Amino acid sequence: MGIIGTEKTSQKNKDIDRRLSSNPEGATMEPTGLKLDWAERGYSCDIWTDLPGQEWKDYVHATDELLMLSEGDIEIIFQGKTVRPKLGEEVYIPAGAMHTVRNIGSTHSRWYYGYRQKR
Fold first, then answer.
1. H-helix or E-strand containing 19?
2. CA–CA–CA angle 5, 9, 14 (5° rounding)
3. By the 8 A CB rule, do 27 and 81 touch?
4. Which of 63, 57, 52, 72 is nearest to 5 (CA)?
5. Three-state secondary-structure class, residue 64
6. What is the dihedral of CA 87, 98, 41, 109, to 10 degrees?
7. Is the four-CA dihedral 100, 101, 106, 108 of positive or negative sign?
């Protein structure tokens, strides 16, 4: 089971995404360069939106994952540590590492994620 890629975005998240995409000030990062960088490194790249208080608990993926915060405040718990990435900070989660991602802010959070692609 995965938090991203296998589950559909909720209607509320789709509504938030629609509002943000129609508001140029709603997004803090341009995804084109990130997508190219991650693709060169063998990763997919997509974006996820969470409402305040959302938590994705104890997920494990069979492949390495990259995550980068675009908006809001999140914390990621894995390998015995809690990471609160800054905007634009890349976090590497190795394959097999149980991890939890939670929106700790008072507004939505948006974060890029990608999985290492099989070659």
1. helix 11-22
2. 140
3. no
4. 63
5. coil
6. -30
7. negative
Catalogue all structural domains in the chain, each as residue range(s) with its CATH number.
11-115 (2.60.120.10)
pLDDT given at position 60: 96
Query: How many Cβ atoms are within 10 Å of 61's Cβ, its own excluded?
Result: 21
Q: Which stretches in the chain have pLDDT values below 70?
A: 1-30, 119
Number of H helices, E strands in the chain: 2, 8
3-state secondary structure of 46: strand
pLDDT tens digits, one per residue of 53-86: 999 999 999 999 999 999 999 999 999 999 999 9
Phi, psi dihedrals of residue 80, rounded to the nearest 5°: 75, 10
Q: State the pTM of this model.
A: 0.74
